[in-house]
Each structure stands twice: as C-alpha cells, then as structure tokens.
Write a structure and sequence with these properties.
The chain has 328 residues and is α/β, with parallel strands linked by helices. 39% of the residues lie in helices and 21% in strands. It contains twelve helices and eleven strands. The strands form two sheets. The chain has a nine-stranded mixed sheet, with helices on both faces. Helix 1 (93-107) crosses helix 2, helix 5 crosses helix 6 and helix 7 runs parallel beside helix 9. The longest helix has 17 residues, at 154-170. It is globular and about 55 Å long. The two termini are 34 Å apart. The relative contact order is 0.14.
Length: 328
C-alpha cells in the first residue's frame, strides 16, 4: 500500500540490517522523516518519541513487539532527521498533533494505535482526544498523556517563551549550530540525560548528529529548548482525557517522571490524571527503571506492550464479529 502513495517516499536504511525502511513525508516546510518496521498489511502503530530524542528511541523495543503490526516511528519536527520548522515558528503540542494528522493522512490510515514516550505521549493523548475515532489503543511510556500547567502560571510561561524566541533570533548561526567531535557529542548527550546507557546514547546519535565542517553537530532545532507557549490547565487536561475512546496503557518508571514531579501542586495534577485513567478502566502500571527504560531495558516493558496490543487490538475484530452475530 505504502509504495503506491505518491506523497510518501521510502529510502533504504543502511544503519540497521533488518526489515526496516525509511519514511519521508513532505510537509509545507520540508519533510517529516521516520523508520518503518513490519509487514505492509500489519495493523498500523505510530510511535512518537520524547523531547530532544528521535525515533531511534524505539530501536530496542520494536523488535520485541508482535510482528503482526506495522510500526512507524516518527522523527517529530525539529528532531532527528525531520526538517526544522520555518523561521519564527514555535514548537507546541497542537503543532505536533497537526504533524501527526499530516502523516496519517499521507499514510492513508483511518484506524491505528499509538505508542508515545514522554512528550510523544502527550502528543498521543491530545491527538487521541481530538480524533477519537481514529485511535484504537494508546501506550504511554513514562508519560501521563497530558502535561498540565497551573493556570496562574500560564501567562508567565507564555511571556517567557516569547522573550526566549526574541533572544534566539538575535543569535548568530555559529551559536545556533555548535560543532563537536563525536566523542564530545556523546559526553554532551550523556551529561544532559544521565539515565541513558552508553548504548542508548549511540542509538540516539545515529539520527541525532549530522556531519559538518570540522566535526559533527546535533540535528535538533535549538528552538525546542524554548518554553512551550501553548499550555493547558489540569481541568482542561481532564476534559481532553475524557474524550479518548481508545484503550490506554500507562507504563510509569519507578525512577522516571513520577520522581521528577516533586512539588505538591504537580503531584496533585498528575495524581488526578492517573486516577481518571483508572476510573475509566484503563491500565496504569509501574516498572523498575528510569525515564528511558523502554530504550535502556526494553525487556522490562515489551511484554506489557505486546500483551496490551494483542488483547486490545488484534482480538477486536473477532469480538466485534461475535457481538454482531449475537445481535443477529
């Protein structure tokens, strides 16, 4: 099916010697890139990475998941090999959700599942609420699906993000793209993400670096470091969440996000979101590990994700047929 699409181009991947191909979806400002695993006829699963990562974050996990699925792991705009947004544009959750809408339109997917890590989980949550008829299952890897902000702080965050953009636009191109040796880039990423194993760092740098004169540079757009100026409150998060019709599996890491939210008001927000999932009969589980457990130790989460996808997705047609038969 994918080969017949004029708007989607496949490039052979040389980095991984298995049934993996490269995805390239044209968008108004360039391309959104990604990787594809699995058979053409497999049930589609979109995989969305976390902030400052790239689709390589799923390299370790996807080979351990059911082979009946078609996994498309996306480099979100400004990350990995995807194009940076146009000058002057902010990186916001609605903009990422719009990018997902563009990709699934290009792939001609009408019904699919989503696996999202961290920020990618928040994009998954918002998309699933806005397009509930398109999503049948959602896996949130150390993510709550929504990241609420205290409504009294929103205006401060908006102003801060705008001021940061003004300062960014004054920077010279040399400052916007710092050149490293590969070894220095490894050290830089490990310092920024101390929970990443050395193996995981090398995996992320496969799509996270580009060769430039004098060494290598990170591919990600520095504007992703600016404050996200589009926020939602706790009440709005819960309202969005109530619109999700898909089955949801939340997998939290013991040493992940749960420990990062230390302030009482933050705990109050996240606890309310998790309780709302439980109240709607969604699954919330905790596994040993850190924020990148799916990449560092994929065997800790693969059985949970596999069982969820097989139960909630693969058996659904049989269930629907049985229901229709019983009604007849």
């Amino acid at each position: 099916m994918l080969q017949a699409l004029k708007s989607v181009r496949h490039l052979q991947s040389s980095a991984i010697k298995q049934a993996v191909s490269e995805l390239c979806v044209p968008v108004p400002w360039g391309d959104l890139r990604g990787k594809i695993w699995g058979p053409d006829h497999g049930h589609p699963v979109l995989c969305l990475h976390g902030w400052a990562d790239n689709c390589g974050t799923f390299n370790s996990l996807i080979p351990l998941l059911p082979t009946e699925f078609r996994y498309v792991a996306l480099d979100l705009a400004g990350h990995g090999l995807s194009s940076h947004r146009s000058p002057g544009d902010f990186y916001t959750f609605p903009a990422y959700v719009m990018d997902v809408r563009r990709v699934v339109e290009a792939l001609q997917w009408s019904k699919f599942s989503i696996i999202g890590h961290s920020m990618g989980g928040n994009v998954a949550g918002m998309f699933s609420a806005l397009y509930p008829e398109m999503v049948d299952a959602v896996v949130l890897l150390d993510s709550y699906g929504f990241l609420p902000t205290d409504k009294n702080e929103m205006w401060k965050v908006m102003r801060q993000g705008m001021d940061q953009m003004v300062q960014f636009e004054k920077m010279t191109e040399d400052k916007k793209r710092r050149v490293y040796t590969y070894e220095n880039a490894v050290e830089r990423l490990m310092a920024a993400n101390p929970t990443l194993s050395q193996r995981s760092v090398h995996i992320l740098l496969e799509r996270g670096l580009v060769q430039v004169e004098g060494g290598v540079a990170f591919t990600r757009d520095l504007r992703i470091n600016l404050k996200n100026i589009t926020r939602i409150s706790s009440d709005q998060s819960l309202e969005f969440q109530s619109g999700i019709q898909a089955s949801v599996l939340v997998i939290l890491a013991e040493d992940g996000f749960e420990k990062m939210f230390s302030k009482p008001e933050e705990k109050k927000f996240t606890s309310a979101i998790l309780q709302a999932y439980r109240d709607r009969n969604h699954a919330v589980v905790t596994v040993p590990g850190d924020h990148h457990v799916h990449l560092n130790d994929p065997k800790a989460v693969a059985p949970l994700v596999s069982d969820f996808l097989q139960t909630k997705v693969l058996t659904q047609p049989a269930r629907q047929t049985a229901e229709q038969t019983s009604k007849l």
